[in-house]
């Protein structure tokens, strides 16, 4: 088993584990290395299928939302609200937060990015997450900040399939770089940025100081 070391701001893991203690009153700790039990597939976020890696990719690229184990509630991340069509419970609508800026270049998150990500999770040759999105048969951008998913049949636990699991990546970067986009431009909307990956050795993340404030909210309807 390889030891994957997450350094310089894999505070995502450390915070969930209980936080990082300061090194002293005048010198705060600015990096942390965390050993994890699962290996990672590399630069492609859709090639991993472990809870550990879902958590890391959600903190870098971003996910629609997640499950709060303390409150027992689903909370929005990139999505601020969602609803199920009462007339047709196969139809789910997700409203994205406006003004979320991508790392470095500041591009705003759009519904097209989410649609792209859903179909990439389904069709990427290296995807290990097909089962997560299998219930969804159609994804469409209703407008710039609204996404509609249609499932094959009513799927009450759909959030359990996609929250904390569907990694949202950029359509424009994939259109430009193809499968090399993950390595050439690993940019997302999460609070941390991918700085380096050495497969089988380490993943280095850095805090995104310019983050536009991704927060988690619970809004359902």
Secondary structure elements and pairings:
Layout: E1 4-7, H1 11-17, E2 34-36, H2 51-60, E3 65-68, E4 73-76, E5 79-84, E6 91-96, H3 111-123, H4 130-133, E7 136-143, E8 146-151, H5 158-162, H6 171-177, H7 181-184, E9 192-198, E10 202-207
Parallel strand pairs: 1-10
Antiparallel strand pairs: 1-2, 3-4, 5-6, 6-8, 7-8, 9-10
Polypeptide structure, described:
The protein is of the alpha+beta class and 221 residues long. The chain has one domain (4-207): Dipeptide-binding Protein, domain 1 (Alpha-Beta Complex), CATH 3.90.76. The chain is 23% helix and 24% strand. It has 7 helices and 10 strands. The strands form 3 sheets. Strands 2-1-10-9 form a 4-stranded mixed beta sheet, covered by helices on one side. The chain has a 4-stranded antiparallel beta sheet with strand order 5-6-8-7, with helices on one face. It has a two-stranded antiparallel sheet with strand order 3-4. Strand 3 (65-68) and strand 4 form a beta hairpin. The radius of gyration is 17 Å and the shape is globular. 38% of the residues are buried.
Helix content: 10-25%
Query: What sort of overall outline do the alpha carbons produce when their principal axes are compared?
Result: globular
CATH superfamily: Dipeptide-binding Protein, Domain 1
How many helical stretches? Answer: 7
Total count of domains: 1
**Strand runs, count:** 10
How much of the residues is beta strand, in percent?
A: 15-25%
